[in-house]
Specification:
The structure is a single chain. The termini are far apart. The strands form 2 sheets. This protein has a 5-stranded parallel beta sheet, sandwiched between helices. By secondary structure, it is α/β, with parallel strands linked by helices. Helix 5 links the parallel strand 2 and strand 3.
Length: 425
């Protein structure tokens, strides 16, 4: 079975690696480590197809170590023991480099089985994961390793690799591959920063191209079908999921409806309207709040409509809610107020209630204060009367601060009015 194009053009040197300049450019941390010849235990963290395996292989070849590869999805304790058994053999005289892909799928016991060997230097571990290692990798392994984050490759960085792919296909098959700059650009922008996906798309684009006169022409129509959804990077349980939701909320909080619609479109394209709906309800309360109290009711109506309609129609009421929230006045005064009250509560001992607020109508024998003495606000002007409501230990504490928006400032003016008139009683 012929090797995939992505394997055929896999870089042999760091200079050929696409992207990752933040750690591999001259003078950058990982590049310095590799050039030093002393390879520590490392964890490569980032999305698939961005060079983690390639860099590990280059490191092994440059340092003369024997490379062993395991994948966390199917590796067992027995597989790990087989690698350990190579320690001290002729084939491992320069050391063993174990590349463990998808380490997050190994359970705690499996990861622990490596600790003794990576700590004493018998094995140098390079593990890769698409999940945040601080959540998915055993802490003892992380503490013995250096974590490097690999990032999606930009479209501009992908274009030379795609041109190289077409050149290799031409050389191997004896015909010219015709692909103009627009085709190369379309592949680069459609693959979500995934080099492997870009190579596979380029290979399939040639297979689906128009052959004739000793050449194959890659067409925009066939490429459109191949790449129509390939730019989606989304995992409901992964970092991308929470990054998109975070970007959505921050865009709405920042009153940028266009950016918010972009991040919402990612969720909609992935079919995840549940997460989008829940986050919009949070935003309505947390970020718009009392500046526009009706926003949460309108958002709830939009969310209910979306969930009842389902996709594709659900996108319309969801877009309505997004634009409403992004363009509405903002206030987090309610969130700040409740957080301050909770903070006070957590720092206090058990608190009693003011006597006049208790649900009591009988005073026991010997009570210091007889009678509840509660003042019923509706019996007073403006339905307001001054009396203490907070427990004695917190009397006078202020949690809510009126926001600088029209809605809350109107409420503040009303509050000042009834306070001033109450003083005249």
């Amino acid at each position: 079975m012929p090797a995939p194009l992505a394997d055929k053009i896999r870089p042999k040197t760091l200079a050929d690696v696409v992207g990752q300049e933040h750690i591999l450019a001259d003078g950058k941390p990982l590049r310095r480590i590799i050039d030093s010849g002393t390879v520590p235990n490392m964890i490569f963290y980032g999305p698939s197809g961005v060079g983690k395996t390639t860099v590990a292989r280059i490191i092994a070849e440059n340092c003369g170590m024997s490379l062993y590869k395991l994948n966390g999805t199917n590796a067992s304790i027995s597989d790990i023991k087989d690698v350990v058994a190579e320690i001290g053999t002729f084939g491992s005289e320069n050391g063993i480099l174990l590349y463990l892909d998808e380490i997050q799928y190994l359970n705690k016991k499996q990861q622990q089985s490596l600790l003794e060997y990576i700590e004493n230097g018998d094995i140098t571990l390079i593990a890769s994961t698409t999940k945040n290692p601080y959540f998915s990798v055993y802490n003892a392994v992380i503490s013995r390793s250096t974590v490097f984050e690999f990032k999606p490759v930009s479209a501009e960085q992908l274009m030379p690799a795609i041109k190289r792919a077409f050149r290799i296909i031409s050389e191997e098959n004896g015909y010219d591959v015709v692909a103009d700059d627009d085709i190369i650009s379309q592949i680069a922008y459609s693959c979500g920063g995934d080099v492997r996906k870009a190579m596979n798309t380029a290979e399939l684009a040639v297979v689906c191209g128009e052959a004739g006169d000793g050449k194959v022409t890659v067409t925009a129509d066939s490429l459109k079908i191949l790449a129509q959804r390939s730019n989606m990077r989304y995992d409901r349980d992964g970092d991308q999921h929470y990054d998109i939701l975070s970007a959505l909320q921050k865009s709405i909080r920042g009153s940028d409806e266009n950016a918010a619609l972009h991040y919402a479109a990612r969720l909609i394209e992935a079919g995840d309207i549940i997460s989008l709906s829940r986050r919009l309800l949070v935003i309505a309360a947390e970020d718009i709040g009392l500046a526009y109290p009706q926003a949460i009711a309108i958002t709830k109506a939009c969310v209910d409509s979306a969930l009842q309609l389902g996709l594709p129609e659900a996108r319309i009421p969801l877009a309505e809610a997004i634009i409403l929230l992004a363009t509405a006045p903002k206030s987090n005064s309610a969130e700040s107020a409740i957080d301050a009250a909770i903070s006070d509560l957590q720092s206090c001992d058990a608190l009693d209630f003011p006597r006049h607020l208790q649900n009591k109508h009988f005073d026991g024998k010997g009570a210091e204060i007889v009678g509840q003495h509660y003042k019923y606000p509706h019996d007073y002007k403006n339905h307001y009367v001054k009396q203490q409501y907070l427990p004695d230990a917190l009397a006078g504490h202020v949690y809510y601060k009126f926001g600088e928006n029209k809605q809350e400032q109107s409420a503040l003016l009303y509050r000042r009015k009834i306070l001033s008139e109450a003083d005249d009683l």
